[in-house]
């Protein structure tokens, strides 16, 4: 179990480093004003951040997911493993149920972590050197929010996070299970790693597509109040206002950058976890690209998703 936990942490960290630049782009596109948009699309947003805020602008808020990965992976691994042992049979349906349970419980850490990440990513928009930094770092961000708004403040967006993460993790684990069963691979298979990369990447894409509209709402709720004024009174009000202003476009705001991020992040995570476990375990037990109920269950997002 200790090796699985460490492997998950390493895989998650690798995924964050690979995917964080596009995560910043995603959040900026999701929360930008519809009436006065700063960015025309994914690549324009990417170029604008690099030009206006330097390359480091793409990595704003990375401290929060890096700090939270250990706790999130501990929860995901523990819940997923225990759930699969209780369910007994290793089937795609049970993988979905176990993944959904893990996704729901890890929201306790995921929600505050993504709140800090979102606030840091929005700070200093369009400025190479921020003249007025509200938050020094992710931890300072959470402390300031707690001092001002209390426990409720640092859990802003919890309901939307729960609605996103629960089915999202279920779809993720189920898709990966189905793909690895279909592709099949053995340790001697020279195509094992490409198959593993493909299965992990496609599982991440399937997970994000299944819950993406709720991720847009979550980002808007967590970014709300950055300028000192709250626009939304809650999740229902956010959905109502957003739909009234944008219609169906709300459902795909920032989706391109999310999918560009999803494949390499999850492919990197699975490859890192698998190679680490193969190296550490050696010939102790058979190793294939289909995870056991208690191993090889990394998450799809610093979340998220």
List keywords for this structure.
single chain; 305 residues; mainly alpha; 0% strand; disordered C terminus; amino-acid transport
Description:
The chain is mostly helical. It contains ten helices and no strands. The C terminus is likely disordered.
Low-confidence stretches: 292-305
Based on CA atoms alone, the radius of gyration comes out at 19 Å
Mean pLDDT: 81
- In whole angstroms, the N-to-C terminal distance is 23 Å
List the helices and strands in order. Answer: HHHHHHHHHH
Q: Helicity level, as a percent range?
A: 55-70%
Q: List how many beta strands DSSP finds.
A: 0
Secondary structural class: mainly alpha
Largest sheet: none
Organism: Anguilla anguilla (European freshwater eel)
Subcellular location: Mitochondrion inner membrane
Protein name: Mitochondrial basic amino acids transporter
Membrane topology: Multi-pass membrane protein
What secondary-structure arrangement, pairings included, does this model have?
Elements lengths: L1 H30 L10 H12 L9 H25 L4 H14 L1 H16 L15 H17 L3 H26 L8 H32 L11 H12 L8 H27 L24
Helix pairs in contact: 1-2, 1-3, 1-10, 3-4, 3-5, 4-7, 5-6, 5-7, 7-8, 8-9, 8-10
